[in-house]
Amino acid sequence: HGRSSPTLDKLQDLSEAYGASPLLLVGAATLIQQGTTVDALVERFAEQMRELDAAGTLVAARAELNDNRLR
C-alpha cells in the first residue's frame, strides 16, 4: 500500500474536493490504519482535545492566529 504525507494545504485541497472536513479525512485514514472503531476513535480524539484544553494549549494556539492564519 502507498504511503504519503500530505501538507496541510494539500489536505485542505483534498477535503474540498471530497466535500469533507480535513478532520474527517485524517480520522478515516487513522481508523483504517489502526483498525479501530469509530466510537473508539471519537473517544480518543475527545479525550486528547480535553487534555489540550485543560493544559491551556488551545488558548495559546488561538493567540497565535490572526484571522484564522498563523501570524
From TrEMBL:
Residues 2-25 form the HTH cro/C1-type domain. This is HTH cro/C1-type domain-containing protein. It comes from the Bacteria. It comes from Pseudomonas savastanoi pv. glycinea str. race 4. PROSITE patterns: HTH_CROC1.
